[in-house]
Records
---
Amino acid sequence: MSTLPWLNPTRAQALQQRLAERILIIDGAMGTMIQRHELDEAAYRGERFAHGYDRAYAPSEHAHGDGCGCARDQRGNNDLLTLTQPDIIRSIHSQYLDAGADLIETNTFNSTTVSLADYGLEHLAGELNQAGARLARAACDAAEAANPDHPRFVVGVLGPTSRTASLSPDVNRPGFRAITFDELRVAYREATDGLIDGGADVLMVETVFDTLNAKAALFAIEEAFDARGARLPVMISGTITDASGRTLSGQTAEAFWYSLRHSQPLAIGLNCALGAKDLRAHVDVLAQVADANVSTHPNAGLPNAFGGYDETPEDMAAVLGEFAQAGLLNLVGGCCGTTPEHIAAIAEAVSAYPPRVLPTLVRAQADDADKELAA
Ligand SMILES: [Zn+2]
Ligand SMILES: [Zn+2]
């Protein structure tokens, strides 16, 4: 793929240097921390969206009024909080940085036109990505200023969207698709540009359940890099959604890697859906086949009857500490149900172990050894 130079060489090199030295820590769940604030509809809406739509914008330039039909419930639209409750989002980022996270994820999981359509706020995609990256950037910059020896990186998150490009949502119409590759490409391009403009150090195509969606995201990212003549490191993280160990679009972890390998990501990994224990076999496969860094950020176990997550920081730390001991990890963090307490415990558990050695590195070392023998 890309032979473009780094957009920000100092940051990209600092990240690679750090990865060579240790297992890096990714933050935990944003949603779980937002829940603790028990925000109501008015809190989600804030001033600007007090009436359930964006006061500053009307799709057909009509004057909003009673019964114009634009009002939507915004409760649960966590990404909107970047604009309406920025202090809360920034403080969550800071709590994860205090817990030891090297990388924090932007609050942009659903900030694509595709997902924002559920809230009637498609027009905010660019703004939410840019503002989300800025907030995370500010939190990272403050942490670095307080401790210059510990670099902190902003991971610009591109979520899977609520639609799948390779499967029909309607069992009676198997040929039907709710979205096309090209529609996804356009949506991801807008989100990517926002994340880059807001100061992301890395981009992560996350919680991939449909590899075709991920390919659209990666295609859009390449377009954005080409337009700038420079690139950022890219991470990819898939999600295993069933007991047979496959993604929703039917791939094993190994097939997932080989179908995305051409994009030469900085890291490939698995997150969400399962707890750490159930992910182990699949992370192990990635660790064997991938000539990229391997990451995982599992949920705090499977959801319980109330939709919550039960694994304690100690539970997760014990399981993920073993992953590290087995040499499977380059980056580790948490997904649904994880908190700063989980991240601190995980960071502590993996700190004793060196990062996984990449297969290419093994090969390069072997080549050097051969040369020495030949000399
Ligand atoms: Zn209206
Ligand atoms: Zn999750």
---
Amino acid sequence: MFRKILRHIIPKVVKKEIKSLINSLVLYPNACISTAIRFVSWNQVSGDYLEFGCYSGDSFCYAYNMFQSTRQDVAQLLNQEDKHAFASDKPRFFAFDSFEGLP
Ligand SMILES: C[S@@+](CC[C@H](N)C(=O)[O-])C[C@H]1O[C@@H](n2cnc3c(N)ncnc32)[C@H](O)[C@@H]1O
């Protein structure tokens, strides 16, 4: 019954968006990390990467590799002077975990 009501209330386009969001979270679980790294790299935001709850390090390694490749792409578009400044402003990577599971 509840589903039938929802089917009439929620517009098709909203359903499509929700489906697409769920798909991207399921198929690309690191999409948020990827978006954040692209943003800070292309906008040359300084700072370190700290991950709280790294567990075995899967998302941490993903973030590290993503940083390396995105920074390379950014560096290619910079002039020699800016490239040097950008290269010397490398983020440091820190991973933390309580190893006690989710609270
Ligand atoms: C789902 S796992 C993270 C998986 C990891 N990000 C990955 O993609 O490989 C969540 C981790 O967060 C840790 N955790 C939960 N609460 C925490 C807290 N308050 N401080 C630090 N680590 C925490 C747990 O011990 C667990 O290892």
